[in-house]
Protein backbone atom coordinates (compact mmCIF):
# COMPACT_ATOMS: atom_id res chain seq x y z
CA UNK A 1 0.00 0.00 0.00
CA UNK A 2 1.46 3.36 -1.02
CA UNK A 3 2.12 5.84 1.79
CA UNK A 4 -0.34 8.70 2.14
CA UNK A 5 0.54 12.00 0.52
CA UNK A 6 -0.15 15.45 1.95
CA UNK A 7 -3.22 17.12 0.46
CA UNK A 8 -2.17 20.59 1.56
CA UNK A 9 1.20 21.56 0.19
CA UNK A 10 0.89 25.32 -0.21
CA UNK A 11 1.09 27.75 2.75
CA UNK A 12 -1.02 30.07 0.59
CA UNK A 13 -4.07 27.81 0.47
CA UNK A 14 -7.28 29.26 1.89
CA UNK A 15 -7.49 26.78 4.79
CA UNK A 16 -3.90 27.36 5.81
CA UNK A 17 -4.27 31.13 5.60
CA UNK A 18 -7.41 31.00 7.74
CA UNK A 19 -5.61 28.95 10.40
CA UNK A 20 -2.55 31.18 10.33
CA UNK A 21 -4.68 34.27 10.97
CA UNK A 22 -5.69 32.79 14.33
CA UNK A 23 -2.26 33.70 15.63
CA UNK A 24 -3.68 37.23 15.90
CA UNK A 25 -6.02 38.11 18.74
CA UNK A 26 -8.47 40.15 16.68
CA UNK A 27 -9.09 37.21 14.33
CA UNK A 28 -9.41 34.79 17.25
CA UNK A 29 -12.03 37.05 18.83
CA UNK A 30 -13.90 37.52 15.58
CA UNK A 31 -14.03 33.82 14.69
CA UNK A 32 -14.09 32.54 18.29
CA UNK A 33 -11.47 30.01 17.24
CA UNK A 34 -7.91 29.34 18.43
CA UNK A 35 -4.97 27.06 17.72
CA UNK A 36 -3.88 24.10 19.86
CA UNK A 37 -0.49 22.60 18.99
CA UNK A 38 1.06 19.25 19.78
CA UNK A 39 -0.30 15.79 20.58
CA UNK A 40 -1.31 16.48 24.20
CA UNK A 41 -3.33 19.62 23.43
CA UNK A 42 -4.97 18.06 20.37
CA UNK A 43 -5.91 14.90 22.30
CA UNK A 44 -7.52 16.96 25.07
CA UNK A 45 -9.35 19.13 22.54
CA UNK A 46 -10.68 16.06 20.75
CA UNK A 47 -12.04 14.75 24.04
CA UNK A 48 -13.72 18.06 24.88
CA UNK A 49 -17.21 18.11 23.44
CA UNK A 50 -17.72 20.09 20.21
CA UNK A 51 -14.35 21.82 20.50
CA UNK A 52 -12.00 20.50 17.80
CA UNK A 53 -13.01 21.82 14.38
CA UNK A 54 -10.02 20.98 12.17
CA UNK A 55 -6.75 19.11 12.51
CA UNK A 56 -3.68 19.70 10.36
CA UNK A 57 -1.14 16.88 10.52
CA UNK A 58 2.00 15.87 8.68
CA UNK A 59 1.97 12.37 7.22
CA UNK A 60 4.58 11.29 9.77
CA UNK A 61 2.63 12.74 12.70
CA UNK A 62 -0.61 11.17 11.47
CA UNK A 63 1.09 7.77 11.50
CA UNK A 64 2.83 8.31 14.85
CA UNK A 65 -0.28 9.63 16.54
CA UNK A 66 -2.84 7.54 14.68
CA UNK A 67 -4.93 7.18 17.85
CA UNK A 68 -5.20 10.96 18.25
CA UNK A 69 -6.09 11.44 14.60
CA UNK A 70 -8.75 8.77 15.02
CA UNK A 71 -10.15 10.55 18.08
CA UNK A 72 -10.22 13.81 16.11
CA UNK A 73 -12.21 12.18 13.31
CA UNK A 74 -14.57 10.58 15.83
CA UNK A 75 -15.10 14.04 17.35
CA UNK A 76 -16.23 15.31 13.96
CA UNK A 77 -13.11 17.32 13.11
CA UNK A 78 -11.94 17.67 9.52
CA UNK A 79 -8.47 16.14 9.24
CA UNK A 80 -6.02 17.48 6.67
CA UNK A 81 -2.71 15.84 5.83
CA UNK A 82 -0.31 18.69 5.29
CA UNK A 83 3.21 19.26 4.06
CA UNK A 84 5.78 19.93 6.80
CA UNK A 85 6.21 23.48 5.52
CA UNK A 86 2.49 24.07 5.91
CA UNK A 87 2.60 22.90 9.52
CA UNK A 88 5.64 25.08 10.16
CA UNK A 89 3.77 28.03 8.70
CA UNK A 90 0.78 27.52 11.01
CA UNK A 91 2.79 26.60 14.09
CA UNK A 92 4.12 29.16 16.56
CA UNK A 93 6.81 26.86 17.98
CA UNK A 94 10.43 26.54 16.87
CA UNK A 95 10.17 22.75 16.52
CA UNK A 96 6.59 21.82 15.51
CA UNK A 97 5.35 18.37 16.55
CA UNK A 98 3.31 17.86 13.41
CA UNK A 99 -0.20 18.38 14.81
CA UNK A 100 -2.10 21.68 14.92
CA UNK A 101 -5.78 21.84 15.83
CA UNK A 102 -8.30 24.60 15.23
CA UNK A 103 -10.61 24.78 18.24
CA UNK A 104 -13.72 26.62 19.33
CA UNK A 105 -13.48 28.89 22.37
CA UNK A 106 -14.06 26.98 25.61
CA UNK A 107 -14.46 29.73 28.23
CA UNK A 108 -17.33 29.55 30.71
CA UNK A 109 -19.63 32.39 31.82
CA UNK A 110 -18.59 33.70 35.23
CA UNK A 111 -22.14 33.25 36.51
CA UNK A 112 -21.95 29.52 35.77
CA UNK A 113 -18.77 29.25 37.83
CA UNK A 114 -20.45 30.98 40.77
CA UNK A 115 -23.53 28.77 40.47
CA UNK A 116 -21.34 25.68 40.86
CA UNK A 117 -20.21 26.92 44.33
CA UNK A 118 -16.47 26.39 43.75
CA UNK A 119 -14.20 25.55 46.65
CA UNK A 120 -10.86 26.51 45.10
CA UNK A 121 -10.40 29.19 42.42
CA UNK A 122 -7.40 30.95 40.87
CA UNK A 123 -8.01 34.55 39.82
CA UNK A 124 -5.45 36.02 37.43
CA UNK A 125 -5.51 39.78 37.86
CA UNK A 126 -3.13 41.86 35.71
CA UNK A 127 -1.21 38.77 34.53
CA UNK A 128 0.30 39.80 31.21
CA UNK A 129 2.68 37.00 30.27
CA UNK A 130 0.87 34.24 28.34
CA UNK A 131 3.33 31.56 29.45
CA UNK A 132 2.68 32.40 33.08
CA UNK A 133 -1.08 32.44 32.56
CA UNK A 134 -1.03 28.99 30.98
CA UNK A 135 1.28 27.61 33.68
CA UNK A 136 -0.91 28.94 36.50
CA UNK A 137 -3.92 27.34 34.81
CA UNK A 138 -2.00 24.05 34.73
CA UNK A 139 -1.10 24.43 38.43
CA UNK A 140 -4.73 25.14 39.31
CA UNK A 141 -5.82 22.03 37.43
CA UNK A 142 -3.19 19.89 39.17
CA UNK A 143 -4.17 21.23 42.60
CA UNK A 144 -7.80 20.33 42.02
CA UNK A 145 -9.20 23.84 41.61
CA UNK A 146 -12.71 24.02 40.22
CA UNK A 147 -12.22 27.17 38.18
CA UNK A 148 -9.86 29.85 36.91
CA UNK A 149 -10.87 33.46 36.30
CA UNK A 150 -8.90 35.84 34.06
CA UNK A 151 -9.72 39.49 34.64
CA UNK A 152 -10.14 42.01 31.86
CA UNK A 153 -6.64 43.33 32.62
CA UNK A 154 -4.99 39.96 31.97
CA UNK A 155 -3.57 38.32 28.86
CA UNK A 156 -5.71 36.60 26.23
CA UNK A 157 -6.42 33.04 27.33
CA UNK A 158 -6.19 31.85 23.72
CA UNK A 159 -2.75 33.26 23.00
CA UNK A 160 -0.85 30.30 21.48
CA UNK A 161 1.82 30.51 24.19
CA UNK A 162 -0.81 30.41 26.94
CA UNK A 163 -2.57 27.44 25.33
CA UNK A 164 0.75 25.62 24.97
CA UNK A 165 1.82 26.36 28.56
CA UNK A 166 -1.46 24.95 29.91
CA UNK A 167 -0.49 21.54 28.43
CA UNK A 168 -4.12 20.58 27.93
CA UNK A 169 -5.42 21.88 31.27
CA UNK A 170 -7.36 24.55 29.38
CA UNK A 171 -9.79 21.78 28.46
CA UNK A 172 -10.09 20.35 31.99
CA UNK A 173 -11.73 23.01 34.15
CA UNK A 174 -14.03 26.01 33.71
CA UNK A 175 -12.25 29.25 32.84
CA UNK A 176 -13.97 32.65 32.78
CA UNK A 177 -12.37 35.51 30.87
CA UNK A 178 -12.63 39.29 30.76
CA UNK A 179 -14.15 39.65 34.25
CA UNK A 180 -13.41 42.97 36.02
CA UNK A 181 -11.51 42.19 39.21
CA UNK A 182 -14.05 43.99 41.39
CA UNK A 183 -16.86 41.89 39.94
CA UNK A 184 -14.83 38.70 40.31
CA UNK A 185 -14.11 39.34 43.98
CA UNK A 186 -17.65 40.49 44.81
CA UNK A 187 -19.23 37.49 43.07
CA UNK A 188 -16.95 34.99 44.77
CA UNK A 189 -17.53 36.57 48.18
CA UNK A 190 -21.29 36.37 47.66
CA UNK A 191 -20.79 32.68 46.85
CA UNK A 192 -19.15 32.15 50.23
CA UNK A 193 -15.55 32.10 49.00
CA UNK A 194 -12.75 33.66 51.03
CA UNK A 195 -10.47 35.91 48.97
CA UNK A 196 -6.71 35.67 49.52
CA UNK A 197 -4.40 38.00 47.61
CA UNK A 198 -0.94 36.54 47.00
CA UNK A 199 1.69 39.23 47.43
CA UNK A 200 5.34 39.14 48.48
CA UNK A 201 4.72 42.11 50.78
CA UNK A 202 1.62 40.62 52.39
CA UNK A 203 1.07 41.08 56.09
CA UNK A 204 0.00 37.48 56.62
CA UNK A 205 2.39 34.54 56.27
CA UNK A 206 1.20 31.43 54.43
CA UNK A 207 2.71 29.15 57.08
CA UNK A 208 0.89 31.06 59.82
CA UNK A 209 -2.39 30.79 57.92
CA UNK A 210 -1.94 27.04 57.69
CA UNK A 211 -1.01 26.77 61.38
CA UNK A 212 -4.09 28.77 62.40
CA UNK A 213 -6.34 26.44 60.42
CA UNK A 214 -7.97 29.27 58.48
CA UNK A 215 -7.55 27.81 55.01
CA UNK A 216 -9.90 24.83 55.05
CA UNK A 217 -12.89 26.68 53.60
CA UNK A 218 -13.72 27.72 50.03
CA UNK A 219 -10.90 29.95 48.82
CA UNK A 220 -9.97 32.07 45.82
CA UNK A 221 -6.37 33.12 45.33
CA UNK A 222 -5.77 36.38 43.46
CA UNK A 223 -2.45 36.52 41.59
CA UNK A 224 -1.01 39.73 40.17
CA UNK A 225 1.41 41.01 37.60
CA UNK A 226 4.75 39.26 37.16
CA UNK A 227 6.81 42.42 37.70
CA UNK A 228 4.87 44.61 40.13
CA UNK A 229 2.41 42.29 41.82
CA UNK A 230 -1.04 43.52 42.81
CA UNK A 231 -2.05 47.18 42.97
CA UNK A 232 -3.20 48.51 46.33
CA UNK A 233 -6.82 48.79 45.20
CA UNK A 234 -6.88 45.08 44.35
CA UNK A 235 -5.19 44.06 47.60
CA UNK A 236 -7.81 46.08 49.47
CA UNK A 237 -10.56 43.89 48.03
CA UNK A 238 -9.15 40.72 49.61
CA UNK A 239 -9.98 39.24 52.99
CA UNK A 240 -6.24 38.80 53.59
CA UNK A 241 -2.99 39.56 51.76
CA UNK A 242 -0.70 36.54 52.10
CA UNK A 243 3.00 36.15 51.37
CA UNK A 244 4.81 32.91 50.67
CA UNK A 245 7.66 32.75 53.21
CA UNK A 246 11.19 32.78 51.85
CA UNK A 247 13.26 30.55 54.13
CA UNK A 248 16.43 30.71 52.08
CA UNK A 249 18.31 33.49 50.35
CA UNK A 250 16.22 33.78 47.17
CA UNK A 251 14.97 37.29 46.52
CA UNK A 252 11.50 36.07 45.51
CA UNK A 253 9.49 33.40 43.71
CA UNK A 254 8.19 33.73 40.18
CA UNK A 255 4.46 33.94 39.63
CA UNK A 256 3.82 30.35 38.59
CA UNK A 257 5.87 28.90 41.45
CA UNK A 258 4.14 31.08 44.02
CA UNK A 259 0.76 30.13 42.58
CA UNK A 260 1.58 26.43 42.84
CA UNK A 261 2.62 26.80 46.49
CA UNK A 262 -0.53 28.74 47.40
CA UNK A 263 -2.97 26.49 45.55
CA UNK A 264 -1.47 23.31 46.95
CA UNK A 265 -1.52 24.77 50.46
CA UNK A 266 -5.25 25.38 50.10
CA UNK A 267 -5.82 21.97 48.52
CA UNK A 268 -4.12 20.25 51.46
CA UNK A 269 -6.00 22.31 54.05
CA UNK A 270 -9.32 21.61 52.37
CA UNK A 271 -8.67 17.88 52.39
CA UNK A 272 -7.69 17.79 56.06
CA UNK A 273 -10.17 16.92 58.79
CA UNK A 274 -12.64 19.81 59.01
CA UNK A 275 -11.79 21.14 55.55
CA UNK A 276 -14.57 21.90 53.07
CA UNK A 277 -13.73 18.92 50.85
CA UNK A 278 -13.53 16.59 53.84
CA UNK A 279 -16.97 17.72 55.01
CA UNK A 280 -18.47 17.61 51.52
CA UNK A 281 -16.98 14.34 50.41
CA UNK A 282 -17.31 12.35 53.63
| β-strand number | 11
For the record, give the distance between the C-alpha atoms at the N and C termini, rounded to a whole number.
58 Å
Content-based structural category: alpha/beta
Which word captures the global form? elongated
Instruction: Give the rounded overall mean pLDDT.
Output: 92
In which order are the strands of the major sheet placed? Answer: 7-6-5-10-8-11-9
Radius of gyration, in Å, reads: 21 Å
Separate helix tally: 14
* Percent helix range: 40-55%
User: What percentage of the residues does DSSP assign to strands (E)?
Assistant: 15-25%
| Element-level helix/strand string | HHEHEHHEHEHEHEHEHEEHEHEHH
Task: Walk me through what this model shows.
With 282 residues, the protein is α/β, with parallel strands linked by helices. The chain is 41% helix and 18% strand. The protein contains 14 helices and eleven strands. The strands form two sheets. A seven-stranded parallel sheet has the order 7-6-5-10-8-11-9. The chain has a four-stranded mixed sheet with strand order 1-4-2-3. α9 links the parallel β6 and β7. α3 runs parallel beside α5, α8 packs parallel to α9 and α8 runs parallel beside α13.
